[in-house]
Structure formats: structure tokens, C-alpha cells
Amino acid sequence: MEEANPGTVRPGGRTARVRAAVLRAAGDALAEQGFAHLDLADIARRADVGKTTVYRRWGTVTSLVADLLVDMAEQSLPRTETGSLLGDLKANARLVQRTLADPRQGKLFKAVIAAATCDAGTADALHRFYAIRIAEWAPCVRQAIDRGEAPEGTDPHDVIRAVSAPLYYRLLTSADPLDEATADRAAEAAVAATRAGAYRR
């Protein structure tokens, strides 16, 4: 059996409290300062945890950010099942919109995405984060196929990506508001494209 990466196990008691405090501090520092200025000693100070503990458990900033992304993916709300593809995708889009529009979370995602463009470890962690979230929501597309709302052969992962792509684009490229109406339009566009067969394999 392979050994778990440092900081990725979910033990209980004091260890869990230390991990939660360090991840919270890392998220705060990332949102405030960006990836380039992250420092394990500063994060330890913010979390009121010994530096040695942080260095021993995570070792590098990249490992800590990877664990933060794992935690964020696991803490994200589960998918909503409304009984219709449009309802499910609107729920997904609104969840993404609320996360990205949140002052802390929006900055945190911008910082991680920026870091992923030049740091392979952060890019891998970001890819794992989205793989977990897409896998969580893909069943709603499979259910829509079973109900006849989407063509056979539709790729569920592509549909879920299509919902959030316009929201991330707006976050990263414009100063336009990231509101619920924008989320709903993203879901409606993804449903229309799905029904037209745009995401068939």
C-alpha cells in the first residue's frame, strides 16, 4: 500500500484540528497575498502551530496548497438532484457562482489558477480538485440521458465543464458582475448545447 502524501490523511483529535487551522491559514494567506508570497513559517504563525509541525507534515508550499484543494473539494456541497437537467445544472452553476463571487474564495481561486500556470505541482492539485467536483456532478447528466433529456453518447464531464467555464472566464477576464443571472445563463446554454448533441462522444 502506498503511503499517503503528507497532510492528506484525515486523522481525528488534535491532528485534525492542527490540519484545519493550517489549511484555514493557508487559504487566508493565499487569498491575501497570492501563491508567490506564501511562506510555511508565516502560515504556521497564522495558525498558531509550530513551524516544525508544518514543515514535517507538508514540507513545501505546493504540498500544502494541494492539500488545501483536496480539502476544498471534499468540503464542497454535494450535487443537487431536481429531476431535470436544467434544474440540476442551474444548481451547479449557482454553487460555482456563489463560490467565485465570495470575496475570499474568489481571490483564493484566482491565486491558485495563477500559480497553476507556472507550478506543475499546483497544476496537478488543481486538476485533481476539478476532477473530484466534475465526478460529483456528472451523474445528473447520466440521469438526464436515461430520462431522454440528453442524447445517448453525451459526455457528462464535458457538460459539467461547459456550465462552469463561462463563470471562470468572467472571474478571470472581466470586471463584469458574477451574479445568479450569469450562472443561470451558463446552465441554460449548456442544456441547449447538450440537447443539440454538442457534447456527444
Structure commentary:
The chain has 201 residues and is mostly helical. It folds into two domains: 59 residues, Orthogonal Bundle (Arc Repressor Mutant, subunit A), CATH 1.10.10.60; 118 residues, Orthogonal Bundle (Tetracycline Repressor, domain 2), CATH 1.10.357. Helices cover 72% and strands 0% of the residues. The chain is built from nine helices and no strands. Helix 6 packs across helix 7. The longest helix is centred in the middle third of the chain and has 28 residues. Keywords: DNA-binding, Transcription, Transcription regulation.
Q: What is the structural class?
A: mainly alpha
Count the domains: 2
Sheet with most strands: none
Q: Helix count, per DSSP?
A: 9
- Residue runs with pLDDT of under 50 for 5 or more positions: 1-11
Class of the largest domain, according to the CATH hierarchy?
Answer: Mainly Alpha
Portion of residues in helices?
over 70%
DNA-binding region: 39-58
Organism: Acrocarpospora macrocephala
Protein name: Transcriptional regulator
Pfam families: TetR_C_11, TetR_N
Q: Which keywords apply here?
A:
201 residues, 2 domains, transcription
Task: Describe, in short, the structure shown.
With 201 residues, this protein is an all-alpha fold. α1 packs across α2 and α7 (120-147) crosses α8.
Task: Spell out the blueprint of helices and strands.
Elements: H1 13-33, H2 40-47, H3 51-57, H4 61-75, H5 85-101, H6 103-116, H7 120-147, H8 156-173, H9 180-195
Helix pairs in contact: 1-2, 1-4, 1-6, 2-3, 4-7, 5-7, 5-8, 5-9, 6-7, 7-8, 8-9
Pfam family, one: TetR_C_11
Protein name: Transcriptional regulator
Domain HTH tetR-type: 16-76
